[in-house]
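Hello,

Following up on my earlier ticket. Below are the two sequence lines again, exactly as submitted.
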Amino acid sequence: MQPQSIESRRNARVQAFCRLRDSAAERKRAGRFVLEGLRLCADCAETGVPLAAAFVTEAARKKGGARMDALLAAANEVFYISEPVAERLSDTVTTQGVFAEAFLPAARPFAPQPGERYLALEAVQNPQNLGAAARTAEALGLSGLLLFSGCDRFSPKALRASMGSLLRLPVFETDALPAALKAASKTLPVFAAVPDRDAPRVQTVDFSGGAVVVVGNEANGVSEVVRALASPVTVPMAGRAESLNAAAAAAILMWEMVRV
Amino acid sequence: MQPQSIESRRNARVQAFCRLRDSAAERKRAGRFVLEGLRLCADCAETGVPLAAAFVTEAARKKGGARMDALLAAANEVFYISEPVAERLSDTVTTQGVFAEAFLPAARPFAPQPGERYLALEAVQNPQNLGAAARTAEALGLSGLLLFSGCDRFSPKALRASMGSLLRLPVFETDALPAALKAASKTLPVFAAVPDRDAPRVQTVDFSGGAVVVVGNEANGVSEVVRALASPVTVPMAGRAESLNAAAAAAILMWEMVRV
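Thanks for your patience. The regenerated structure is below:
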């Protein structure tokens, strides 16, 4: 299909993009999500996630390169956009002028194998924390991520903070948390990170057979239902801060899961 | 001194506040920095940093509480501000309407003692990373932070991300990095975090006598001059991500420094 031009910020495709950018409910309804930035768009194309559309400014297209070629080749539709349209689509302060609309991948069944290591995030609200945890999970070689209760995997901020790890890692989402943890516990020990001083310290836990470790909401920690299904584990703190940031706690927990 | 009212966004004190908020150079020139949010302002008052001024909306003042009392008592000048002024002063999406202007603390001489553990950050650009690393440092009980080469400690974003840890922790700043590391190395071993696969892995390093560990710039890592003065240490990565986020790497390194 020939590329089409979009000059107006009120264009219907522009408005649809912005709705997908701003609303998790709209992403779910439409079965699509959006990406900004050449690297993230090209990463997405490379992972095989089908791209519904690419939106690029003339300046970005002229800069070109292998990533731009890959992006334009992977997209079902290509739109050449004006600078004002790029500013409208952008979620950042200075935009590169490169955007894509992608189809949400099909849900995967969570079927953990012995020896695998998963980080589970329950109701983590801050997309920076979600993205940072995913990036660390990929860097440390975890088997995947489990997301529960509104962790918004396709939030543009989370995708950007993850540097694409949220697209590359195996990610499993569920709204039926107790069932998923119960099923997982037949194969792997399940732990919940808690701030209790008398919980077993993470460095004393044997992760050699694999594990699922749940990190909870920034303000409230893991829920009671998760606590009831999991063994407690804690990152001991010597200092005065009330608690570690969720992404920092997750980094230390994941490090201990893979530390040999 | 009686509280004064500020109704206009063009008021000179409002403009001065915004300059301090937005510019590290202006903070240095004026010897002041700014804070937003009741908790951070009250934390600052509690740590004994002198407050030049407090700016509060009527709604915030009416909500009151012990922290508000502490803030108003600690400030040399108190300004009652209108909601439009609060929006002008704010660096956040939804403001609480509570702000303070504080005097920059005097520089401390860095005189590390045997057994102490310091994280040093070299040219870390992202205030979120700086704030997150400070929060983790305080939670894990590190002895303090060393900041080099433009790590902007009094950036409002860094202060907020640190949840006040940047005000409570001993923080040392220097522009003479080689001299500071050379002096430190007489008392403590100095390490530089590097992504090299053949560098000693962090879990094999003996931190029992204390240490200084340097984490570098997000894009370029530690500089050559630091590498030359320090022993390399690495967080081994199994995965595909190019590298850990600076705050996540710092969390794992600090954890290993205090892990027993």
